[in-house]
Amino acid sequence: MKRTVFVSIVGRPNVGKSTLLNRIMGRKVSIVSGKPQTTRGCVRGIYTRGEDQYVFLDTPGLHKARNRLGDYMEAAAESGMQSGDVVLLVADVTRPPSGTEKDVIEYLKKSGTPSVLVLNKTDTASRETVAGTIAAYAALHSFDAVVPVCAKNGAYLNEVTDELSHFLRESEWFYPEDEITDQPMSTYAAELIREKLLRLLDREVPHGIAVSVEEYRADGRTGKTYIRAEIICEKESHKRIIIGSGGEVIKKVGTYTREELEKMTGGPVYIDLWVRVKENWRDSESAVRRLGYDKKNIEE
Ligand SMILES: Nc1nc2c(ncn2[C@@H]2O[C@H](COP(=O)(O)OP(=O)(O)OP(=O)(O)O)[C@@H](O)[C@H]2O)c(=O)[nH]1
Ligand SMILES: [Mg+2]
């Protein structure tokens, strides 16, 4: 008897939502960095175990939008939260509940949506802190389960899926058994390039970057993949930083992305990167939309 559950992973930026998803999946589907607002749209991770299919939705960290891109992220996170049978609220165990978590709890109460609270980063907290945070959340809402975890090293993630298993419903699967994400490879490649930039660059520069894959060719016969991508940034000064002296930074971006994709595809990968300036694109509705952050795709 086949069963399915849709799980929305929500929470503040940087709490480890994408790390958690990747760990549960046992492979990377959603990019991760130490900077907030890494995830910009919803990324689906499909985890099939025996007769059971868990469809996870990783969402952008909930925050107040400051530009058109932020508007898109906010809308994606909100609608992502509302699309789940269960909400998996991820929070940093070292922090007391903030306004953002309280807003999510408000939604949970109003909608009556089942919820599991995951308190992440237990490796950075004492037992007392963990107990204190659990108590602070318990005073706000009766979650169906509360699970302290360390997504980074994978501790207690089985408990998360065990808790979620209570919400599986008898139903045909929505995805074939071997499908792990709804993200096309070209989009994943663009995301990996953005991840490397987030990791290599400081301050505002990576937040003002979008990556557009202009050409993606995978040759089934030779196993070769060719990718041509454009890195769009907001200022000429940012372009110089992205290229780096002697092309040092952009070379690293290409190498790291290539190595990761080669491991995944098992064949050689060629990446051609170009940098283009599009002044303050994050403030332009049409530019944001053209770069793939289109609200129409959310509401579908
Ligand atoms: N110490 C510690 N760090 C963690 C843990 N889980 C995730 N991190 C780190 O937290 C940072 C943010 O992780 P992400 O998974 O990108 O966080 P996110 O919630 O998806 O962030 P947004 O996409 O920006 O909303 C990264 O540097 C992770 O390595 C954990 O269990 N312990
Ligand atoms: Mg994320």
Number of strands: 10
CATH-scheme architecture of the largest domain: 3-Layer(aba) Sandwich
Helix content: 25-40%
**Topology pattern, helix = H, strand = E:** EHEEHEHEHEHEHHEEHHEHH
Q: How big a fraction of the residues is strand? A: 15-25%
Topology:
Blueprint: E1 3-10, H1 17-25, E2 43-49, E3 52-58, H2 68-82, E4 86-92, H3 99-111, E5 115-120, H4 127-138, E6 145-148, H5 157-165, E7 169-170, H6 185-200, H7 204-207, E8 210-218, E9 225-233, H8 236-243, H9 248-265, E10 269-277, H10 285-290, H11 295-299
Parallel strand pairs: 1-3, 1-4, 4-5, 5-6, 9-10
Antiparallel strand pairs: 1-7, 2-3, 8-9
The protein binds guanosine-5'-triphosphate (GTP) and magnesium ion.
Question: In words, what does this structure look like?
Answer:
There is one protein chain. The protein has helices spanning 17-25, 68-82, 99-111, 127-138, 157-165, 185-200, 204-207, 236-243, 248-265, 285-290, 295-299, and strands spanning 3-10, 43-49, 52-58, 86-92, 115-120, 145-148, 169-170, 210-218, 225-233, 269-277. It is α/β, with parallel strands linked by helices and 300 residues long. The protein folds into two domains: 3-170, Rossmann fold (3-Layer(aba) Sandwich); 185-299, K homology (KH) domain (GMP Synthetase, Chain A, domain 3, 2-Layer Sandwich). α6 (185-200) crosses α9. The radius of gyration is 20 Å and the shape is globular. Magnesium ion is lined by residues 17-18, 30, 38-39, 58.
